[in-house]
Amino acid sequence: MAKVEIFTQPGCPYCIRAVGLLKQKDIPFTEVDAPRGTKAREEAIERSGGKRTVPQIFINGTSIGGCDELLALERNGKLDELLKGA
Peptide bond preceding 13: is omega within 30 degrees of 0, i.e. cis? Predict the structure, then answer.
């Protein structure tokens, strides 16, 4: 199974939605608490190529973007394919 990491911050509705989808699909993931100004947030920005919003989602170390991109992958039937291709 693919390694899924999601950098979030408390109270973020997009983070809640993305985490909810991962849980609903029973996809194992690591959630990293990354509020503004933390080392974890800086790591997410660096790894994502400068994206400053949360959530930032990585599959096998590759940035797939945020909540909108995750939902688009699911909607287009490509999320399961991406996770299996690991």
Answer: no
